[in-house]
Structure formats: C-alpha cells, structure tokens
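User: quick one
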Amino acid sequence: MNESDRRARLVALAALGFLLVNYPLLALFDVADRVLGVPVLWAYLLLAWASIIALVALISRRPG
Amino acid sequence: MLQTWVVVTVAGAYLALLFAIAYYGDRRADSGRSLISNGSIYALSLAVYATSWTFYGSVGRAATTGVGFLPIYLGPTLMAALGWYGLRKIIRISRRNRITSLADFVSARYGKSTLLGGLVTVVAVVGIVPYIALQLKAVSNTFTILRRYPEIAAPAELDQVPVLHDTGLYVALVMAAFTIVFGTRHLDATERHEGMVAAIAFESVVKLVAFLAVGFFVTFGLFDGFGDLFAQAAADPDVAPLFTLTPEVGYGSWMWLTVLSMLAVVLLPRQWQIAVVENVDERHLIRAMWLFPLYLLAINIFVLPIAFGGVLRFSGSEVDADTFVLALPMTEQQQALALFVFIGGLSAATGMIIVETIALSTMVSNSLVMPLLLRRGSPRLRRGDLGRLVLGVRRVTIVAVLLLGYGYFRGAGEGPALVSLGLVSFAAVAQFAPALIGGLFWKRGTRDGAVAGLLAGFAIWTYTLLLPTLAESGRLPRGFLTDGPFGIALLRPHELFGLAGLDEISHAMLWSMLVNLGAYVMASLARQPGPVEHGQAALFVDGTEGLGEGVPLWRGSATIADLEGLLQRFLGPSGARQAVLAQARERGLDRPPAQADADFIHHVETLLAGAVGAASARVMIASVVKEEPLGLGEVLEILDEASAVRAYSRELERKSQELETATGELRAANERLQELDRLKDDFVTTVTHELRTPLTSIRSFSEILLDNADLGTDERARYLRIIVEETERLTRLINQVLDLSKLESGRAEWHVTEVDIADVVGDSVAETVALFRERGARLAVHVPQDLPPVAADRDRIVQVMLNLLSNAAKFCHPQHGRVEVAVRRQDSVLRVDVRDNGSGIAPEDQQAIFEKFRQGGDVLTSRPRGTGLGLPISQEIVDHLGGRLWVESSPGEGTTFSFTLRRSDTLRPPAAPVDHGAARDTEHR
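Assistant: Done. Structure below.
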C-alpha cells in the first residue's frame, strides 16, 4: 500500500466513522432494550468505536 | 485515614513525584537520551485531552443524558484517523518554519500578521479561562468532599469555602510553580519541554488506572457485574430513560458535539502544544492514531456504569452527579480507593493546567506582548537581553492565566456543571477552524478574511455562551437571559433572532460558524492578498517539500554583525556565534561573510521565529535590514520560480526513474534479440545444411544417370528410387520446417475438441503397422476401457503419436524389436507411454533430442533416419495443449517417450483456439 493509498483509506475511514456514530444509523440503535444484559445503544457505540480504532491500526501499520 | 493532613500529604507527595519525573525527563533530554521519543509516550501525552471533565464531569453528564457524554471522545477518534492527512501537514509546516503555537501558525499563514496573532491569543486566553476554572473547581470540590468524610457534602455546601481555605487556589499556585519551572526553564528555538511531556504521560497513566479502579469497584463490587447493574438500572424509573439518547439529547446536538470535539482535539492550545510543538518525530503519529483513541475508549467504558450506579445508590439524597466517582467509594468506606480517585482527578486537572498554561504563555509572549513591545518599544528594549524578557513575560502570563481561571471559578463557575463549562471553551477554540483549515487548504484565504471571521465568531461566542454563564451565576441580571438585553426578545442570547428549539451549544455553534465562515470567505474574496501573504499562503497550502526553510520573499541587505547582534539577545553570545558559523559552513565558507544575503537573513529570521514567534521575528529583522520592498509581481516571480524549480525537480526525478526502467527493459530486450538472432542464424545454417544433403544426393545420382546412358535398367531404377526418396525427404523436411515455424510463431490453427485418446491411438497404430512389419518389430497396445476424453486437437495428437511410433520403429532393437503403447489415467490428465527396446539414449543426450535437427543414434555412421524436427514439433504441440512431453531412458534398456493431456471433464472448456494463438504470440515477443 503506498502513501497516498493509505491516506485516502484513512480519510474514507473517518468519513465512515462519522456516519456510524451519527443520525440516521445511530437512531436504529437508540432503543430502550438490552442486549446480553447491557443497553443496546451503549453496546453499539462501544463496538463501532472499537472497530474504527482497529481499522485505523490495521491501515496505519507500516508495511513490512 | 482521610484526615486533611493525610490528603494534603499524599497530594503533595504526588506533585513532588511529578516534579521529579519532569526533572528526570529534562535531564535525559539534555544528555541526548530522550525519554519521550516513542509513539506510545506521544499517545499518552495526547491523552491530556482527558481532564477533570472526563474524570468527574462525564459521569455527571451521563447521569442526566445517558451516553450523551460520548461524542466528546468519538470526535477525537475520527480526527485521529485524519491525523495522517491534516495533523502531519501542520507538524511539517510548523517544524519547517519554527512555529511554536497556534497563534503563531495562524499569524505566519496570513503574512506574519501581528494583528491576527494577537487576536488568536486573546480568543484563546478568554476561551480557555472557563476550562481552567473547571479544573480548579473539580479539585477544590473533591478536596472539600474528601475532607468531610464520612459525610458526603451536598453541592450547596461546596460553595461556601473561604478563599484562603480553598484548595483550588493552592492547586493553582503549585501548578504555576510547576509550569514556570518546567515550562519556562530556558528559551529554546523549538519550544519543546521533554520533562513536562514525560510528567504528562505519567499523569495519563495515573488517571486511567484510578478511573478503571473505581469502574471495577462499582461494577463488580457494588453490583454483580454489568448484567446486574444494568438490570437494576432498567427497573428504576429514574434511570431507565437514560438507556436511550432521545428525548434528552437530540441527534443534531449529538452531531454538533462530535464536530466540536473533532475541532477541539486539534485546536485547544494544550492539544496543539502536545500534538504539534512537542512532537519529536512525525512517525509517532502512526501509533498515536489508534493508541490515543484506544485510551479514550478505555477511560470511558465505566462512565455509564458509574453514573447508573451513582443514581441508583444516591437516589433521594442530594449528591452532585459530578462527584459520583469520588462519592461512591466514600459511601462504601473504601478510603484508600477514594484517596486514589482524588489523586487520579488531581492528575487529570494538573495535566491540563500545566500544558494549557505553557501553550497560552508562549502565545501571549510571542504573539501579543513581544510584538507590541517591539513595535513601540523604547530604544532600550531594542538592545538588552530579550531572552530574559520573553521568559519573564511568560512567567507572568502563567500566573495571570491561572489567577484568571481561579477568579472565573469563584465568580461564575460554581453554578454550572463541569461539562457545560468545558463546552464553552470548546466552542471558543472552534472559532479558529475556518482560518486554520482554510489556511491549510485554500490559498485565496487572506488576513482580512481571517481577522473578520475570527472577530465575528468570537463576538457571537461571547454573546451566546460566555455572557450567559455570567448571567446564570448572577453577575449579570437574569433578565438578560430570559427577556433579552433591554427587553429585546429577538436578542435573547440562547434564542438569537428567534432561533429556538436548540440546546445552547448547538445554537451558539450554528450562529458562530455561520458568521465566522461567512465573514472569512467574503472578506478574503473582497481584496487581493498582499505580497507576503501571497507567499506564505503558497508555502502553507502547497506543502513544504523541497523548499528548505521557505523562500525569502523580499530583497534586502544587512551586515552579519547586526544579525549576530540580534541573535545574541536570545541565544547569548556563544549561541549566536555558533548559529552564524553553522550557517556559514552550510554554504561552504570558513567564516561568515561581512554582508548577509537574503537567504542568510531568512535563516536568521526563522531562528528568531522559534524564540519569539513569526510576527515578532519579522519586526526585529526589519529593524536591522535595509529592505527593498517587493511588488506583488516580483513576489509572484520568486514563487513561480520556486514552484517551477520544485516541479522541474519532481518531473526530473520521475523521468530519470522512468528512464532507468526503460533502460533496463531495453537491455533485456536487446539481449533477447541477440539470442534470437543467434538462434535464427543457427537455424538457417542447420536448415541449409539439412537441405543440401538430399539435394547433393539427388544431384549426384541425376548426374550419374545423365552421364551414363548405358546403365542397366535395374541400376537406373535403383538410382531413380533414391532420387524419389530424397525428394520426398526434402518435401517432408520443408513441410516440417514450415509447420514448426507456424507453431512457434503462434500462427498455427488449432481445433481443440473432446478427443477420445483410444481412438487416436488406434488410428495411429493402424497407420504405422506397415512400418513395424517392415522392420520385423512387434507392437503391443494397452488401452483401458472407458477412458475419459481429453481436450486436444485430434490431428495434432495423431501427428505426435505418428512421430513417436515411427521413432520407436526406427530405434527399437534391430532383430527382436518390441514396442509397447500404454495409456493410463493420472489425476486430471491421461498419460500415454510409447516404449521401445532399442539401445537407449545416454543421459547427456536426453535434453538434446528435443532440440531442432538433433537426432538420436550415431550420426556419423549412418545416414540420418529422420528430419530431426519431429520431437521439437511434438513437444511444441503437447505444450500448447497444456500437457508435457518427456523421455525416460538409460543406455541398453530401451527408451520411453511419455506425454500427458488434460482431461476435458475435469477442467473448464479450453479457451477459443485463436486466443491460444494470441497468447503464445505475445509470449514470444
């Protein structure tokens, strides 16, 4: 992966992240239920957040 | 154990430890073994983002809005992903131009404007004061609560602490001391403070561990894990509504908070200081891009559980949700944990205060005070040791900012929750965004635009956010909020021009960004930028590669002595001498010339900029340099030249790389051509030779017939038969040469179909039976039943079989000749063996027989028995059909030729024959 590729991917990831944690996707999980014993919205946000972090780590990793 | 003296001692010991770490970090930096030069420390120091707001305030906000506290941490995560794009550019530009603060950056971008630098500084100081107040408030309140153990103080009681008993004041003073010691130790052109950064990274660890400890305690100590906690919460009518965002927090407000925190994580002076100024190596960004968000994730996991736990535990009693983190361990008599939490909160507050005041003091001294002093300063100022003056200004600033923060806390900060205070500051620094982002990516943005946008945005911010906090705490009449100033309802600060229905932050952001961005764009486009502005804009927007420290955008001359005199006032005599000598060496001179050229002057200006900021450096240089002002045309020329040179050099580099590749390719092609040429020569020689042999014999026998008319009929018939045979051989040879050349060049036509191999073998055997009979050899054929079909060209396979069979007939044992043909299945192919019992082929010849015109057997003793093209042709055919043809033999034990063909039922149908030809065609070229 070259430099401009990496940059483009990170920018795209930031855009994706912004969509994930905002309306309207956010509204889909804004319900009073619990999943595995914890609030749905809380679980969704933590999961989306962790996924973004993992993807950033994956993309920004230096090539070998 | 929570007596006042214990708490004070522990807190004092903790602060002493901070001093020790900072001291050690500075010592390591001085000896060149940096403590902080790695991505993890960089990420941890960035976590100065998490302050008392995070430590205490998030829980308070979660207790009323559920996950409404989260956007403040999601924004930085998104911004971190953009860090490789935006932040890295800022770091590079800052390093190249020795820019040491946000104000300096904005000022330098818009033509080293003094006005703009000062304006940014004022906005930053005014905007950050509530934020510092927040920290002092948190420390002061938690200390008071801790002292009253085991009772848990209600918010109302916290407001009545006399000033001299207020920990906030003492924390402010100790922080001032720390910041002065480690933040203004000496004047350094890079403004980096390694000891301070090491201490900040350490504080980040402490606050994370402390918060996680409370989180574990509440979740697994007070409750039986997450499931139990949330189950109880769901059953409680007070807490259950907090499971969802709506109706407490609107999605619009959520989005504004996300955007706000994205901007704040770069634009807050302390974040800028850590991320840009204190950055040791831009590669550290790579780790920080995920480690910093991960830190934020970790410190936020337990916020909701603690908030819910607190609401459940304290329902009915009057405990401020902002203090749940501390109050929960206290109510459970966990004194040690409570003390640890207090230290964690202290570290969150002190970390923020230290870095924020350092950043602000650099701004105030370099962008506000020094330009003013220099511009209208007395002649005394123009001499003297300015380095000490700068440090003095900074120290005063640090104390002043902290006292301002304390004053705000005592005056207005006691009412609102921690998060509200912090958001006011976030909104203030967000006003820098249009000027900064525009400055990085839009060349046409001008100083006028930046000033106009900043002023307009700041005015709206003051009116819609800052003044209301004063009104809420009673410093302004309440009517200002509810009825608008002078009773004008249209100007109500929280519903400006009647825009109602938004929370105060969304409302303020909407209006301030609207006017800020609008004024920035319109004022930018209203007037052409000046020459220096134009030059700086190009430098910032186009990136900084290949231009060295930037281009001097003016002409002028000065003596080296004057410049050295300037430097001396900041770097001292020896430092100045060294800087001048280093610069002279760089251009290959033993000692500095008497007169400095534009480059030299520019370099000195950059050095000065590191110490006093771009605007001040400009003023100082102007005082010793006789400048000839440049017109816009000339500036454009210089810039064009510079960018042309850069473009050329890039182009050149690309071209030379292309050239290198092309040369390599050419060389390879040439070698291949030579090889082909040699092969062709060999081929022609051999073919001619092969043609001459039959021709010679035809000619000699014809001559015999011509010369000897009296030959007997028998004799004559024998000679004629030889001539016919030789002619046939010639024809065959020519046909085969043509055939081979067709195969090799890919012009041969192929008709690949499903072929029954048994059928092919049968036909070939039938055709050669006569040949075997003639030689007295026996032929055995083993073909199993029900063989699957192969994908092949039937005529070509017959050709291969005929060739192998006739070879076998020729080379089998002369007396007891025996040839076997066997077909068998092998995985996805069928394999055909043709075995003879002849004399065999020596291992060294086994490769050679597949070359053209090479024949087995003893060439010297007997007339050639074939054309020498049969095997090469056969191999060419089998290869083309995707099979393999090879020989196994040892002398005296006969020879086996084998070939394989792909089964058509195990593979996709072969591609169209023409495609095969085309593919080969390209392969050969």
